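pasting for ref. prot 1 ->
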Amino acid sequence: MRRIRSQVLASILVNAIYEMKNYPVVLLNTVLAPLSFLILIVFVSNGSLLGVGIIGGLIMTMFSSGTSLQSDLSHLKNDFKLQDMVVSSPTSAAVYVVGMAISELVYSLPAIVILSALFSVYVHVQLAQAVGILVVLGMMFMMSVALGFALATITSDIVQSFAFTRLLTTLFSTLAPVYYPITLIPEPFRYAAYLSPTTYAAQLAQNLGGFQQAAGSSIIVDWAVLIALTSLFLWIGARKSRWREK
């Protein structure tokens, strides 16, 4: 158990603390990414979508934290051959990924703290609703971590890795109705939004936050789809990633 804690701590130090200490500009980038969309939404909606935007910022931050794992793991695997060293050590793939995933949360901590403070001020929910939103955020993080790990094991260059990260962020966090209700999307194009897992997460979180009312059957479908997609992505990360070279 002590060895596992040491390995997780090493991942946090290497992938989060080192960058945050030596390159403070990364903290600015981490904070501005979700807040820039939030500010834009507030201006466009004259403040009416502030609460929805805050929830969207939390969803985007959690999802982006997981997908960022892909580029970091790819960099360490291809440029420093760290994965080869870890494979030949007693460290398992699960411990390695858990440590790196926690490091991504530490890396995103400034944005999470600011958005959580805004949430406590502008989003008024009961404890049960707050727990439900936390569950949604947790599933989004697990889903993106599993996807990020699977992609990191098959990418051969950091440039290719960055391309995957930008593509995932655009499709799942920017184009999807995360910062605004899906009802604002015209009907013919609304169905395309349901291709993104973040749409179901956003609908659940917005409903729990009291910003939109949904039928009980719709809520059940959203939960079922989100749980199924999270399980699918975890299966892909566990079974389809290339941990060892064949």
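and prot 2 ->
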Amino acid sequence: MFLGVPKSLVQRLGWTTASYGFAQLLRLVNNVILARLLAPPIFGLMAVVTAVRTGVELLSDVGILQNIISNPKGDDPLFYDTAWTLQVLRGLALASFSILLAVPISRFFNYPELATIMPVASLFFIFTGFDSTSRGVVQKQLQIARVSMFQIALGVITLVANVSAALITQTVWALVVGSVATSAATLIISFLFIPGTRHRFIIDPDCARQLMKFGKWVFFSSIVYFFAMNFDRLYFAKQISLSQLGVYGIARGLADMVSLFVQRCSSFVLYPTVAAAGLAPVELRKRMLHGRRTLLFAAAVAMGSFLALSGLIVRLLYDARYSEAALVLPILCAGVWFNILSSTNDAILMGLSRPAYPAISNAAKLLTYVVGVPLAFYSYGFMAAVAVIAMGELVKYVALWMLSHKEHLRFGRDDLVLTIVFFLTAFLMRELTHALGWTASARQLHPHALLGSIHL
């Protein structure tokens, strides 16, 4: 045991932390190099492509991997071969749908380039459709080391593919080709998870029914999740320039780095652990309390420090074309903290086979965006809209906390203390770096100071 956390959980978290840290280092190097080689409008256009592609993918998601992890028959060849067959059919259908959408999408956003980019980007769906389901089996068996090595290998391939493409052509095609190449590599590596893995085309009616029964809530949740996660990019794509959208995308990507780590821990460690435990909520809370507290305390310190240093990080890594990201990033970081709290609760509830709750909480977040973002944008400008985006994460957390309370999963006091740790860390780190002459004082992080800093 380590600070009350089981040794096996510490080891899995250790693998997850180490691999994620290395993968994020590769991702950061990738982003910085690409920012030097490519202009902001290219990132803006790719943000639209990615949002549309993600939307097409999530709007038909039935939770194949989640099914394999949570279902007792998940590692039965008949079950995962049925899942793989449905996944292949879905991938082919999504690729066809993406091609059909190309021209209407290009006209809607008034970017003619999308008419030729979308058909090429649709190859992503074909490659991911044929991905081996062994990734879900490995996660179910809690072989975190193997999953971690996969993520590191994928990070290296992504870096090489994107930078190579950008050196050949300094256009949006560098990002498109790099993305497709990465999905192809993912397909190949997925069959190396479990050596000798073979899939066959088969649809067992009973297995298919189980997949669809669990997947109906995942489907609804994915629809809501897509719009909640991509509403900002889709809305801003119609309201601001591609250059400004590219700068916003850089800030959003940096803000998500810590939250993606906690989501990764939640998906690869917490979710399968809860699903395998088979405990009642009250007993589960006792078992998970120390591990969750340790993970989130580290996240609070890391996220608070990152918020304090956000402007300095942008100045050190990016050139003057991306300087406005330093003003957007602190606001997004505040929202990301509540996203981090929510992600652990999401994983626990999914492990308890309660997919409806994350769907409902994401719906509350989406409603905040649909009503609040346009109103804030037209009334007070871009930065006010960004503040609403951050606030949406708080709304989601509150909704999820209320739903978790019904299941006797009470983490409210812990989360309040951790939130204080997050903001206190940000304040103290900012004052320390100000004393060293690296940053402005903590007063510059005040919401009114940030909101009044820029008008895009």
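The radius of gyration is 22 Å.
The chain has two domains: 8-238, 240-456.
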